[in-house]
Amino acid sequence: MADFKILIIDDEPAQLISLKSFLQRRNYVVFTANSGTEGLNILKANSIDLVLTDYRMPDISGLEVVKATQKINPEIPVVVITAYSQIEEAVQVMKEGAFDYLSKPIDLDALEVLIKKARERQYLISENKILREQLKERYRFQSIISQSGAMEAVLNMAGRVARSKATVLILGESGTGKELIARAIHYASDRADKPLVIINSAALSPNLLESELFGHEKGAFTGAIAQRIGRFEQADGGTLFIDEVGDLPMQTQVKLLRALQFGEFERVGGNKTIKVDVRVIAATNRDLEELIQKGEFREDLYYRLNVVTIHIPPLRERKSDIPVLIRHFIEKYARQNQKNVVGISKEAQDYLMRYHFPGNVRELENIIERAVVLARDEIITLEDLPQGLTVQTERSILDPYDFSHPYEEKLAAFERVMIEEALKQKHGNQSQAARLLGISERHLRSRMQRLNIVNTMRNR
């Protein structure tokens, strides 16, 4: 960190001259002020990296310098210089936000150690800012690869809800990108500089889930040898993303409901109520309404989570995204593996366009990564793709004599084709399409939402 700038505030001229000379010999840029008021004016007018201030001064005290510095820029560390008799006051100043203190006469070696610590702190703050900006850039909505109308509707909904405080429920099959959307919502929100904490309910045993979410006290259960804070406390001020929320056991659902309703909970084995400010985004690939009917998911929790619902369509329903995703993954993995792979043959791309992708975008990414690694040429060919892929055309899922697809999936495909054809014939007019189908417009809207059908002709 070049040109580290230090401001010394002290009403004793000899102390100012001595410290300035010592620091300049070590190549620091030094500003001096003989009063707290003058020092704060210098602080406002210059980019200062560290403040050294005396505790007792005629106009304002070191405590007031600390408080004023925090208002100007809370990231600037302040070291308070005290007499031995003022050490108790210096400790109090540290509680108010000072970085550290030094007692008179100043130990110059100790001063150098403090400056080194301050420089390391500034470096970490700067590095974290860069990392946060990189995360924001990586997960901003514009960075999500898509060109289909269905996915654009998802991104539009996510963008509109991002700056609200509303709880969001993201629905979609495994591999569709639910966590990606959750991250984009967080980094587009007012909580972007606060923690984003992620927990996958399906990856933990029911016995561990409650402790992971809410923490536990020492001795709460066998093996609880120390107090531990949970994900809710870790996410205070930020966002908690609960993936696979449909896998939460009933006991944990009750506690989650209370946390959502009142913003408070107790750790496992504790009786102290802990209040937090957390925005919850939940996701699942399961049908929560069906789980409610089976008595496996609380209806009141469902409505608390379901303030805003975002349905992410499976990849097979947004085939126009496949070519752009292929190009993106080729560039990504060619760069990572230092391979000169620049594209894919028409035959290989057509083959992937006909594939059903039960694993969705995650499966496509794995296929392309493997192909890039194995490719002998600049272009990925059919020979580079996994030989075990079973190509399933759209015709097969609509064929009543083809039983390679589950019953519910085939019914949904038939219904989707009927609705899309009705909308096409009626030029996007949903009232007329509903009459053509012999159902109410409300029923049509409901089925369109459930099947992730976007009326792209509506505004034409």
Beta fraction of the residues?
Answer: 5-15%
N- and C-termini, Cα separation: 56 Å
Q: Uncertain segments of ≥5 residues (pLDDT<50)?
A: none
Task: Determine the number of helices (DSSP H or I, runs of at least 4 residues).
Answer: 19
Q: Tell the overall outline.
A: elongated
Estimate percent helicity: 40-55%
- Strand order in space, largest sheet: 2-1-3-4-5
The secondary structure category is alpha/beta
Give the overall average pLDDT.
Answer: 85
What would you report as the Rg, rounded to the nearest angstrom?
A: 30 Å
> Would you report the number of β strands?
14
Tell me about the largest β-sheet.
Answer: 5 strands, parallel
Describe this structure in words.
This protein is of the alpha/beta class. The chain is 48% helix and 12% strand. The protein contains 19 helices and 14 strands. The chain has helices at residues 13-25, 36-45, 62-72, 87-95, 108-139, 149-162, 178-187, 206-214, 231-234, 250-262, 288-293, 299-305, 321-337, 346-353, 360-374, 394-398, 407-425, 430-437, 441-450; strands spanning 5-9, 29-33, 50-54, 78-82, 100-103, 168-171, 196-200, 239-243, 264-265, 274-275, 279-284, 308-311, 343-344, 379-380. A five-stranded parallel β-sheet has the order 2-1-3-4-5, with helices on both faces. A five-stranded parallel β-sheet has the order 7-8-11-6-12. A two-stranded antiparallel sheet has the order 9-10. Helix 1 (13-25) links the parallel strand 1 (5-9) and strand 2. Helix 6 (149-162) runs parallel beside helix 7.
